[in-house]
Design a protein that fits this description.
Helices cover 57% and strands 17% of the residues. The protein is an alpha+beta fold and 472 residues long. Bound molecules: adenosine-5'-diphosphate. Adenosine-5'-diphosphate (ADP) binds next to helix 8 and helix 9.
Length: 472
């Protein structure tokens, strides 16, 4: 068996898992890189604004030594920074800077050194500094004024431990989420790929059975519309194939049967001429005529079979042109004229002139010929057939009406079937093969024209065809 790589289900699994991994990568990137950066920036800007506020209140207090309100405001600003921002706040003059905040193991001293090293920036110095306990600290330092001739510094410290803890917890959680997401993606992809691939695999094995000639198969779809549509199409194709196979079998059976009778006759009469009537001119002519008639019948039969199978198989492409139907119909009626004269039949026609339609002239001529021929064959005692070509509701309507014995209601559909012939010993003036109406049907169906028959037993028949009018 041939192996097909890239099976649908593996591809779906792969894409789903890649998709889940992709999403998780984005989440991890946000968490590992952007989230930390965002936290640090937020802390830094809040330290700078808090530092600026406290320094303003400090300046105000120093400027107004007797103003209790200024002192209270300054203290409140420090309290605020502690309570609301979780900052440690130290105010120390230059001499104390190395000793203040001892618990931070000299971090303040290093921050001071950086601050001085950076030329004492106006907005202060703000950075992450590790202390000896390896705990990361965000430290802000700035000069906020002077007392007794020595500079006073404000120091803000924020431990990053809680942020680190949260970030670690988030990472563990993300790890679990990543696993869960991948498992879910895998499960969903397995379900989807199974529901997609299984019906397709089933269809493949059904198609293989069909290919082996087993027509007792049925393609079943799934809940997906596209697959159901495919199953319906394959079922329709199977029906077509089955029809073609039946048709072929029937054709072969019918052809052999239909060819056999005239051939037997030809052989029998040829032998009769050889053995008996050879010398008798009159008899010989009679027998020879039978042979000629049977040969004609054979030719007609073979032509009809060929015609039908060509139209039905679509081999004989349509040659669509703008045709003057009125003229075409008159020509067909003329073809019957010598026959009508010699057999006493009449065709009363009412043909509106200048009616055009887009169709294949040769094939429509055949339709007219077959339908009029049938009407002559089956018309009643009055030996009259009526033919109309009129415009009705914007369409060209062709009707051929006879006064014969009509068609029984339950046979109306069967008459279009190949080789169907009413089981009576009807004498036909125009010879038929039982294929005339199937040819009509096949031709009109490839054109897509509406056609039919209105008939009642004992009351004659009205065969009609509707042509879309071409106004040109
Ligand atoms: P054929 O006429 O050679 O038998 P057709 O395919 O033309 O083959 O017609 C099939 C059958 O339909 C005929 O045998 C006949 O029973 C019936 N039929 C066709 N035309 C008419 C008609 N105008 N009136 C009554 N029966 C008809």
């Amino acid at each position: 068996m041939k192996y097909y790589p890239r099976r649908l289900k593996y591809i779906i699994w792969l894409y789903f898992v890649l998709f889940a991994l992709g999403i998780m990568c984005v989440v991890w990137f946000l968490q590992l890189v952007l989230a930390n950066r965002y936290f640090y920036q937020t802390i830094e800007s809040s330290m700078i604004t808090t530092g600026r506020d406290i320094s303003v209140y400090y300046g105000n207090m120093i400027g107004n030594p007797n103003n209790d309100k200024a002192k209270e405001d300054y203290e409140a600003s420090i309290e605020n920074a502690r309570a609301q921002r979780s900052f440690q706040v130290f105010v120390a003059n230059g001499d104390d800077i190395y000793t203040v905040g001892n618990e931070y193991n000299g971090v303040i001293g290093s921050a001071y050194a950086y601050y001085i090293g950076h030329g004492g920036p106006e907005d202060g110095y703000c950075d992450v500094l590790p202390n000896e306990a390896k705990e990361e600290l965000y430290v802000y330092i700035n000069r906020i004024g002077e007392e007794d001739g020595s500079p006073v510094y404000l120091v803000l410290i924020r431990s990053l431990q809680s942020i680190k803890d949260t970030s670690n917890m988030m990472q563990r959680l993300l790890g679990i989420i990543t696993l869960v997401v991948i498992v879910i993606a895998l499960v969903i992809s397995i379900v989807i790929s199974a529901s997609l691939a299984n019906p397709l695999s089933k269809m493949t094995s059904t198609a293989k059975r069909l290919a082996r000639g087993d027509f007792n198969v049925k393609f079943s779809g799934s809940e997906y519309a596209e697959i159901r549509e495919l199953a319906d199409t394959l079922n329709a194709m199977k029906e077509e194939l089955m029809q073609t196979a039946i048709l072929q079998r029937e054709l072969l059976a019918n052809v052999t049967h239909d060819l056999k009778t005239p051939l037997t006759m030809v052989k029998a009469y040829a032998e009769m001429i050889r053995d008996f009537s050879g010398e008798n001119k009159e008899k010989r002519n009679k027998h020879a005529q039978v042979i000629i008639d049977e040969a004609d019948r054979l030719t007609m039969l073979v032509n009809d079979i060929l015609n039908l199978s060509k139209v039905q198989s679509g081999m004989d492409g349509l040659e669509i042109e703008r045709i003057n139907l009125s003229k075409l119909l008159s020509t067909v009626i003329d073809r019957f004229s010598s026959f009508l004269e010699s057999n006493g039949y009449t065709i009363n026609s009412q043909i509106e002139s200048g009616l055009f339609a887009e169709c294949d002239a040769k094939k429509i001529e055949q339709v007219f010929y077959n339908l009029i021929g049938n009407a002559i064959n089956y018309t009643g005692e009055n030996k009259t057939v009526e033919v109309f070509l009129t415009v009705n509701d914007g369409k060209i309507l062709f009707e051929v009406i006879d006064s014969g014995k009509g068609i029984a209601e339950d046979k109306i559909d069967t008459i279009w079937v190949k080789y169907y012939r009413a089981s009576d010993t009807h004498q036909r003036p125009v010879k038929g093969t039982g294929l005339g109406l199937s040819i009509v049907k096949a031709i009109l169906e490839v054109h897509g024209f509406r056609y039919g028959v209105i008939s009642r037993k004992g009351e004659g028949s009205n065969f009609f065809v509707e042509f879309p009018q071409s106004k040109g």
